[in-house]
Amino acid sequence: MVTNRQKASFTLREYEKLLKHTSRNYRCVGFEVLDDPDSLPERFAIIRHDIDISPKAALDLARIEAENNIRATYTILLTGEFYSPFEQGTRKVLQEIAGLGHDVGLHFDAAWHKISSEAELEGAIRFELEILNRLLGFEKTSGDVKMFSFHNTTPFTMACRQTSYAGLRNAYAGILQSQVSYTSDSNGYWIHRSWEELLSEAPLRIQVLTHPEWWNDRDGEPAEKVCQHLDLRSKRAWESYCISLRTGGRCNKSGLDEASSCLPLLIPREGEQILRLWLDGRREPAFLGLYRCFERLTKTMVSRYLQRMAAPAREVAALLSDHKLQLDPVAALALLTSQPVSRLLGFSGSTYRAITNARNSLIHGFPVRTVNLPRHFNALCVAMVNVAKWSKAIPKGGNSPASKTPASDVGALSAWLTAGAERLGLGAEEVAAFLGRHREIFPEGD
User: Fold this and answer.
1) CB 121 within 8 A of CB 160
2) Could you tell me the pLDDT band of residue 209, with boundaries at 50, 70 and 90?
3) Cα separation values, 236 from 216, 260, 331, Å
4) In this model, does residue 255 exceed pLDDT 90?
5) Which regions of 290-409 does DSSP assign to beta strands (E)?
6) Percent of the chain having pLDDT more than 70?
7) What confidence tier does 64 reach under pLDDT thresholds 50, 70, 90?
8) Phi and psi of 413, rounded to 5°?
């Protein structure tokens, strides 16, 4: 049975809505409320984030909070497997979070240290505290880490109820456990109650723990979100590797020089997926995926040219989607732009034919020399960059017969197809058959 807590939305928009609702009813504070161990302030809210997987997602939340003048607490895990605070980019993100006015704490994994007593706990916290302060540069400023929270709580850590250990305030102090209402989005679902349900209960004091990886522009299953953050981390690592090679004047032996620089810009989501397929060793599906993207881009350009030449949208769609016509979009684009294929794509027509032959062989199950695929792959990326540039040069009018006649004049389109039949690879019979199939779209004399 799906509960209301499981159906709750975890989008950035919903996060900001809940945050504003909280700030209207509570004063948002940090763990300094523990400084008087005998009593807590009468009414407050603590907004805490344990960064388990994604510092980048944490920065997204930190910016939303800063824009709404709300202070939160972010705890950093030194011993996790999903990110390293020692990476230069991650360190900058964590420093930016602190620079937005938020508190930064230590996210401490007692199991990593194999701790079984509170005496051992003090020493291990001091060890990590010194590292974190130096890592964030706090030893050179007036700021420093003043609190900690346990990672993956156990019966032992939940029994560590003192207000502080090793001089750090304890997010699981006994007084907080007994006198502050609490909820958490652990594992991508609300435990105890949802944030919204907690607010509706209107307790005097609340602590809301969120894990930034669950909050994104678009909601989804927790496992899907983890994969997305891992993909993003992998992409950043790859980009960092490429930058280091270029900076050092060294050669990138991946075979993806053009692809790695242009695909994320031209086709962001698909481009990253295609790059990952290639790097995983699945070169044939990566090549076919890239060819589909190239073909789609080229067809879009042909459509835009025809529309500027007064061809109506239905006619354009019919022209491009008619499989019996087998219209080559590159040939059509070359005809429309009055450019040779070599200038349009950035390489010779024979190279383009080799690429299309490789694509046709693969889709029909015939083998292709794998040694040629890296060359074809990068050439397609070059072609996509060049074709995209032509979008800035699409004429407002054209010089073909179609631009000089009414949009629905079948004779104009027939004349254009016939005039360019040789370059398009079409015969007169194919042109006539195409027009015959679409008389309802291209009515005579309309």
Assistant:
1) yes
2) very high
3) 18, 12, 37
4) no
5) none
6) 75
7) very high
8) -65, -40
Across 32-36, 387-391, 411-415, least confident range: 411-415
Range 332-351 average pLDDT: 82
Distances (CA, A) of 245 to 3, 85, 242, 366, 420: 51, 23, 5, 36, 46
Model confidence pLDDT, tens digit, residues 47-63: 999 999 999 999 999 99
The CA-to-CA distance between both ends of the chain, in Å, stands at 61
Report d(CA 245, CA 241) in Å as an integer.
6
Kindly list the distances between the CA atom of residue 205 and the CA atoms of 29, 170, 385, in Å, as whole numbers in the listed order: 11, 17, 57
**Chain centroid, CA 232 distance in Å:** 6
Contacts of 127 (CB under 8 A, 6+ apart): none
CA 290 – CA 267 distance, rounded (Å) = 10
Give 398's DSSP letter.
-
pLDDT exceeds cutoff 70 at 393: no
**pLDDT for position 407:** 39
Those residues whose C-beta lies under 8 Å from the C-beta of residue 87, and which sit 6 or more positions away, are: none
Burial of 357 (0-12, 13-18, 19+ CB in 10 A): middle
Q: At 379, list the tokens.
A: 């050439």
pLDDT at 7 exceeding the cut of 80? no
Q: Quick one: residue 75, left, alpha or beta (phi over 0 = left, psi -120 to 50 = alpha)?
A: beta
- In order of start, what are the domains of the chain with their CATH numbers? 4-214 (3.20.20.370), 254-437 (no CATH)
Q: How far is residue 75 CA from its own chain's centroid?
A: 24
List for the chain the helix, strand, coil content (%; round to 5): 60, 10, 30
Check whether 273 has a pLDDT greater than 70: yes
